[in-house]
TrEMBL record:
<dbReference type="Pfam" id="PF07911">
    <property type="entry name" value="DUF1677"/>
</dbReference>
<dbReference type="InterPro" id="IPR012876">
    <property type="entry name" value="DUF1677_pln"/>
</dbReference>
<protein>
    <submittedName>
        <fullName>Uncharacterized protein LOC109722177</fullName>
    </submittedName>
</protein>
<feature type="compositionally biased region" description="Polar residues">
    <location>
        <begin position="122"/>
        <end position="135"/>
    </location>
</feature>
<feature type="region of interest" description="Disordered">
    <location>
        <begin position="116"/>
        <end position="143"/>
    </location>
</feature>
C-alpha cells in the first residue's frame, strides 16, 4: 500500500477517534484522562468494572509482583487504599488536576535550575585526540567566539 493511502486512512481514523474521546476519572487517584470508549471498556473489563489510569495500573501490577500471591482485586484494593491515604494527607487539590500537575512541574524545574552545578576543570567525557597546535587554535577560536566587545542593546535600539 502506498504511503499516501496509508496516511489518508490514518488521518480519517484519527479524526473519528478524536470525535469519540470521553473523559474518564481514575477510581484510585482521581486523574482525568481522555480516552476512547473502546479503551475505557477494555480497562474496566480488566479491573472488574473500575476505570484505572495507566500509572495506577502499573502500580497494581507492581503490587502483584511484589507481594505474596494475591488476587488482582486485592492488589487494586491495596493501591486504592494507599491513594486515599495519600490524598487525605496531602493539602487540598486545586479544582483542576492539570493546574496542579503544571504547578508541580514548575516547582521541580525551578528547584533543578536553582541548584548549584558541579564545575569541572576537565570534561566528563574525553574528546577526540588532536595535535597540540590544533588544540591551541581551537581554544583561541572558541574564546574569541565567546568574547563580547560591546552591548547588543545599542545595535537593537539604533
Amino acid at each position: 500500500m502506498s504511503a499516501t493511502a496509508m496516511s489518508g486512512e490514518s488521518s480519517s481514523s484519527s479524526a473519528t477517534a478524536a470525535e469519540e474521546e470521553t473523559a474518564a476519572c481514575c477510581d484510585c487517584c482521581g486523574l482525568v484522562e481522555e480516552c476512547t470508549p473502546a479503551y475505557e471498556a477494555r480497562v474496566r473489563e480488566r479491573y472488574g468494572g473500575r476505570w484505572i489510569c495507566g500509572l495506577c495500573g502499573e502500580a497494581v501490577e507492581e503490587e502483584l509482583l511484589r507481594s505474596a500471591p494475591i488476587s488482582a482485586d486485592e492488589a487494586l484494593a491495596r493501591h486504592a487504599t494507599f491513594c486515599r491515604a495519600f490524598r487525605s494527607a496531602a493539602p487540598p487539590a486545586p479544582l483542576d488536576n492539570a493546574d496542579h500537575l503544571i504547578a508541580a512541574l514548575r516547582h521541580l524545574l525551578r528547584r533543578s535550575l536553582d541548584s548549584p552545578r558541579l564545575v569541572r576543570s576537565t570534561p566528563s567525557s574525553p574528546g577526540r585526540p588532536t595535535r597540540t597546535n590544533n588544540r591551541a587554535a581551537a581554544s583561541s577560536s572558541s574564546a574569541a567566539a565567546l568574547a563580547r566587545s560591546e552591548s547588543c542593546f545599542t545595535t537593537l535600539a539604533g
